Amino acid sequence: MAYHSRSTPAQVWQTLTHSLWWAQxxxxxQGVVAAAKAAFAAVLLGVTAPxxxxxxxxxxxxxxxxxxxxxxxxxxxxxxxxxxxxxxxPVVVAGLAVGGLLLGAGIALWAGGPDxxxxxxxxxxxxxxxxxPLAPGWRRLKDVFVVNxxxxxxxxxxxxxxxxxAVAGRPIGPVAVAVCLFFFLRSxxxxxxxxxxxxxxxxxxxxxxxxxxxxxxRTRQVLALLDGCxxxxxxxxxxxxxxxxxxxxxLPVVSYSLSLTWVLDxxxxxxxxxxxxxxxxxxxxxxxxxx
Length: 291
Prior knowledge:
Elements: H1 9-25, H2 28-45, H3 51-70, H4 72-78, H5 80-88, H6 90-120, H7 122-131, H8 147-168, H9 174-197, H10 199-205, H11 210-214, H12 216-237, H13 241-262, H14 270-290
Helix pairs in contact: 2-3, 2-8, 2-9, 2-13, 2-14, 3-6, 3-7, 3-8, 4-5, 4-10, 6-8, 7-8, 8-9, 9-12, 9-14, 12-13, 13-14
């Protein structure tokens, strides 16, 4: 009789984290994270727009997949396995990016018309500005200190906030501005946390990020301050009737993120910490589903 050994909890955890790592490297996880952001933004805004998370998820997948083609030099140092995959399968990667973008754009146009389509394309425009020099001899915005992270954070904050409004046919108001500010701060922190993981490659290729310029210790302090500011914005949203419940439920999630930021320079497991950071948005997505 043959006996099949059961997987230990450690083996299950290793398999799960490895799967999530590959999902992150191939931009699948980024798409899910972006969809969760849009879902949470919709509940804060008090709108029903089920197509918005789908569109944001597809566009995010497309943008980050395309970015893998533009970042082969840096990724060869930071993420050699991903860089090798992209180098070996450039046509497949490009096809996935184009397919995701076309599908996302089509759903945006169908669900919310031209306004939704314009909003959905904001990250695409930002990606081009980020990766391609604006003029011959100019540096890429990706290489410019603070501008690089600020552009990425603003593009995603605007998209996850405005797309639910565009799909629902609702105007921009003070609550939308606060929600956009919240996601700008959250996105800024997340990008710089990932930059800590990528600091070796960024330094080698001349990309100026907070950890490259300030060092990891000072970066941790700056990001902890921004985490605190986003927590304050969330508290400020609690008096708004339709935002009160999701904002209250999200307070522990942002506090959890602050704890991750606080140990930024005290861990060598940056891949795991980055996965945990993405997990923040998955938790916010669960809050959106719950309320």
